[in-house]
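Hi Y.,

Following your request, here is the sequence exactly as I used it, all 221 residues.
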Amino acid sequence: MNEQRSSRRIEPHAPVLSGAQRELAARYRFAERFARGRTTLVIGAADGSGAARLATLARHVIALDPVPWVVQRAVRRYRRPNLRFAVGGPQVGGLAPTSFDLVTAFYRLDRVSDWPAFLEGVRGVLRPGGQLLIAVGNAERALDGVPTFFLAELHDLLVDRFRIDGLYGQSSAAKAMLTHTVDYVRVGGATSALDLADRAAAVAGPATCASRYFVAVCRRR
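Below is the corresponding structure, written out as tokens. Let me know if you'd prefer a different format.
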């Protein structure tokens, strides 16, 4: 008797995304609403996909990452006339003052050794009224490899330098589904489960002690 073959198949070229990658992608989806027509600086570009996404809306995007080979790979993958990748960050003191309308800082912040100096540098490159979007881990949750703060601590750190427009939570209900070790493979007929994973990773609602990450939206006064 012939064995019955499954009707499902794995798409060979579909991306395999970990929970951490979904969370990072969700931050860039959140950032899209702020990027339209704006000169944007991306700190911690990683694979470059988030910067490329913002470049479809922004006037111009400069994306920094401190790892040279990561930058070289992003340059090969993403070519847009308004998008430039460069080695640098997270410190931005070498950039021209008041030259950006929007700064995103979602990755590589584990390399920040002096947070007040880092934030002062970001404030310096923002134009008056320009916005910073920054993501950090919640110190009440067990997170490895990312800087963590208590919510009140993060508020106090930011409010001395910016007007806080909002403090949002991310992945508050997704600890079991979205982790650094669980991958999601795109399988025929399973797209609803993948959509659920993306929704769980979204930046949504106010920051609470249950949030895995805090995402702050700040404005230079």
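The longest strand covers residues 126-138.

Thanks again,
Q.
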